[in-house]
Amino acid sequence: MSPKDLPNLISILRIILVLPVVWALLTSQFSIALILFAVAGFSDALDGFLAKHYHWESRLGSIVDPLADKLLLVASFASLTWLNLIPVWLFWLVMGRDILIVTGGLAYHYLLGKFKLLPVWSSKINTALQIVLVLLVILQHQWFSELQQVVTIGIWLVVSSVLYSGTEYIVVWGTRAWQQQRNQ
Question: Within 10 A of 149 (CB to CB), how many other CB atoms are there?
Fold first, then answer.
């Protein structure tokens, strides 16, 4: 193992943390859930920084990092929805965007050929806002009921970022598909 493998190991750690985070949420161990989720959320920023700053980017990392993000966030949103701490419609909006992106990526791959996984900038903001929202919901539910207005603002920021980044994916990848098809 070399230092360049560190970002991938951090992403794998994030995947490993998914089940303990879900367990902690569903068993109302909110202190544990907060700590585990905060570590997982921080690991997302850390692995990205290391990969970019030290040029340790890899094909594996381009797959494992977004997979880790999706597993962590979908599982956390599902758990918080189950606990009635976030609205069901928000869960389905977030899921719908992810399904749209995966379906679009598969269609692109099978209809037009291989492509490099490149997230749009708004997707990174969307992920960060979702991480912050989960942390805020846990804090508000367990310790700070006065954060309800902040959570509501967080929900609407996530809604905006989901809609914007989903639209950006459609425009960016739709344009690439159109250009590639035109050049064939």
Answer: 9
